[in-house]
Amino acid sequence: MARLAGVSRATVSYVLNNTSAVRISEPTRRRVHEAAKELGYVPHAAARSLRAGHSRMVLMPAPRVPVGPLYSRFFDELQWSLSRLDYTVVQYGGVGLHGDEAARAWAELRPVAVIVPDEGLGPKGVAVLKRSGARAVVTMGPEHVEGAHALVMDHQEVGRAAGAHLLDRGRRRLGVVVPEARGLDVFSRPRLAGVRRAVRGTDATVTELPLAYEEEAAARLAARWRSLGLDAVFAYNDEYAMLLMRALQDEGIDVPGETALLGADDLVLGRLLRPRLSTVHLRLPAGRDLAELVDRVVRDPTAVPETHEVLGSRVVHRESS
Amino acid sequence: MARLAGVSRATVSYVLNNTSAVRISEPTRRRVHEAAKELGYVPHAAARSLRAGHSRMVLMPAPRVPVGPLYSRFFDELQWSLSRLDYTVVQYGGVGLHGDEAARAWAELRPVAVIVPDEGLGPKGVAVLKRSGARAVVTMGPEHVEGAHALVMDHQEVGRAAGAHLLDRGRRRLGVVVPEARGLDVFSRPRLAGVRRAVRGTDATVTELPLAYEEEAAARLAARWRSLGLDAVFAYNDEYAMLLMRALQDEGIDVPGETALLGADDLVLGRLLRPRLSTVHLRLPAGRDLAELVDRVVRDPTAVPETHEVLGSRVVHRESS
To answer: Which of A44, A58, A126 to mutate to test the interface with B (most CBs of B within 10 A)?
Structure first.
């Protein structure tokens, strides 16, 4: 390869291993890469990371809950931004692994950075990752974890905004849908707590409504709706709101006359319903900002962990509330 | 660690590197693992794969299109099944990489198996992966790729089933929605071709209807609907069908009286619409079957590549068609 590129073997090695200690001109780099390509050479990421001491891999455990369109868009942008900064994003399948146990598994791949999209990682897990060479550990959970940079996603605030809106609309007996689907309680619990916080100091009440994402379950809930005596419901998100709206309408219950209905996520489908669905619009952090935070910390791993409040909540008032 | 476990250093190394050449009893293995855990030892997957010659990593590039609930369920089951067979699944972020170029990037991680969930990988890419140590390469695309095992996903058949159903219902002027969203044409083109195949030899016509997933775009299409003279439409999937149904109803067009409407995917939301949505139910391969195929090929990489037809299509007739 050195002969084909017209450079020394040491230069080939420096270029292919991306050594930053040695300064090599851009044209030379290009010549080496072209020669490598022509010869069908595939560098070994593992070997390269062993030599360099770290990789360019950003590991991101796959979220443990089914992802919605909001998260997909955020993740696409994050991935794109990291690839422009020359990182490779791998999503680690986390089935059956939890908390610090999961961290040990991630550490085996020797990522240079780890972004954890939900809660569960503790200070021990952060330490394991750092000992294994991760320079940046960023969590996206409800609270800060010792040793890690934190994007704090405050789902209580989603519930608080929902509760405050329904109170504003003159409602006093609020139902809150809590999905029965495995894993969603990391979001639904704080949302419920947020609604409770909103009504504190008022005469309003909050009733928890467990619900499976199935037509029959919604019909059963609608059938006993009038006995619950509710005048409003925060339905967790737009998809559950759609499910419940249909069941209430089939039962002859007027939305919003008899019961106000509020979703969350601001999906297109909410505007297709009649009445049009009111919703809590969520703003996830910009993928580009997060990519830049990761890159900054990789370059200076001694930086003091930062905590950023993200996830803006804003109610979009349409016709259902 | 050897002292803590009460075994020789060689035994520790054999156990931690999972060497199969040496027979070591289960209690001894357990003692070594416990000692490793107590000492906070994290094995280095890279080093381990260098020594062993291959890893337990199954690499799966992330699909290039937003995934729906169907794919999520399939992927969860696949991941679960592979983890039970002691594989680690990593999803590789494929932004900006295409075809054989992508294969080179995947090869850097030295996965023992690669599952490609969409098309784009060619025979060259398969060869690069195999040269880099991948024992199993499985593609899930419209056709077989040389050197790889193939789960053939025939989206033409989805369109053919849709077209045949609408003909059965006495319709003759069929519209087919083709989403404008980036990336979806790998599914929408063959589905359109399938509808065309269904009408071959009849007096029915097929009209292509490009559509963005936006309320305004659907309203524009509905406004010129009567000038198109269609009596049926296959709306690509249930979400586009919902979007179009609302726009047609707002325009005073009766579904199914004036226009029959058919979705695909059989999502819950289809049953929540009025009229209830007819749909093409798709059956993805079982994650467990795919996991077992991967494991079988990893154990015997010389096995002749298999081709399996997957993706069953079956029309569920409700009220909209």
So the answer is: A44
